[in-house]
Design a protein that fits this description.
- With about 80 residues, the chain is mainly β.
- It has a six-stranded mixed β-sheet with strand order 4-3-2-1-6-5, with no helix packed on it.
- Strand 2 and strand 3 form a beta hairpin.
- The protein has one helix and six strands.
């Protein structure tokens, strides 16, 4: 099972085909949920990359059990969201 942490904020969420879904804006480590901004703009991606962003109402919730792998730069899911 994948364990999510706040260190995952700013990483890209990728699908099984390697296509970018969005960028992780916030992680709730207690609930094991990553909030993902679909198709972020350049400025938002930079803010998230530095760890200064927050989740908002249009973010996608991704539970840890949907995440197959975690690397230094991305989270990869094995299912369609």
């Amino acid at each position: 099972m994948t364990v999510l942490s706040t260190a995952d904020e700013g990483k890209y969420l990728m699908d099984i085909e390697g296509e970018q879904i969005g960028i992780v804006t916030e992680v709730d480590p207690k609930e094991q949920v990553a909030y993902v901004e679909p198709e972020p703009g350049i400025s938002e991606a930079l803010i998230q990359g530095f760890g200064f962003g927050d989740a908002d109402e249009d973010d996608i919730e991704v539970h840890a059990d949907a995440v197959e792998t975690v690397t230094d730069t991305e989270l990869r899911v094995a299912t369609d969201l």
